[in-house]
Amino acid sequence: MSSLPISITPRMEQFIKRLTNPIAFKFFLFYKLPLAFFARLNITQLSPQSAKVTIPYGWLTQNPFKSTYFAALSMAAEMSTGVLGLMAIDNAQNPVSFLVVGLTANFSKKATDLTTFTCTDGNLFFDAVAQTLQTGEAITIQSASIGTNKAGEEVARFTVTWSVKAKKK
Predict the structure, then answer these.
(1) Which of 53, 62, 108, 120 would be a feasible disulfide site paired with 80, CB 3.0-4.6 Å?
(2) Rounded CA gap, 166 and 33, in Å?
(3) Which CATH superfamily is domain 10-166 in?
């Protein structure tokens, strides 16, 4: 798999603009991912190489132990990886399917304030899309997302396993 920087196409620029526009993103969440809308997930940084997604600690995302519920953290971690995959398939010349097939998580500290999940695996997604379009075979990739608190301390580390496959014409 390649680790060369990905050149930004006009289509990618439009994708990034749509998902980093606060109003457009809220509409997208409300209609396509209502739980993420109510949990107030936010994409704070997006490029072909990386994404940052935040989730606040609050009444809707809390657990009984006065920290962010693991499922809310999982949602933000998955989005930080998934948005990179969505960009890669949006930029593809032919249709590609994209599905979570696995998830592992490690929690190292209570998430008691805003948590930011960062994924820097954009190249994995673009390479997987190119490979599946070339071979027609399903490609499985593992993408890491690291959650940190406002102080920059790691609170959780997720690995999301994705299946990427060219759709039959």
Answers:
(1) 53
(2) 24
(3) Hotdog Thioesterase (3.10.129.10)
pTM of the shown model: 0.93
Q: What is the reported pLDDT for 4? A: 56
Comparing CA positions, the residue from 112, 111, 99 lying closest to residue 146 is 111
Residue 5's pLDDT is what?
A: 66
pLDDT given for residue 3 in this prediction: 56
Q: Per-10-residue mean pLDDT for the chain, 169 residues long?
A: 69 92 92 93 96 96 94 97 96 93 97 97 96 95 98 98 91
Closest CA to 54 of 122, 148, 125, 143: 148
CA angle 123–124–128, rounded 5-degree value: 115
Give dist(CA 91, CA 163) in Å, integer: 17
Quick one: which of 141, 131, 142 has its CA closest to 166?
Answer: 131
Alpha-carbon distances of 53 from 3, 110, 125, 153, rounded to whole Å: 23, 18, 17, 16
d(CA 7, CA 56): 32
Domain parsing of the chain, residue ranges:
10-166
Q: Is 58 helix (H, G, I), strand (E, B) or coil?
A: coil
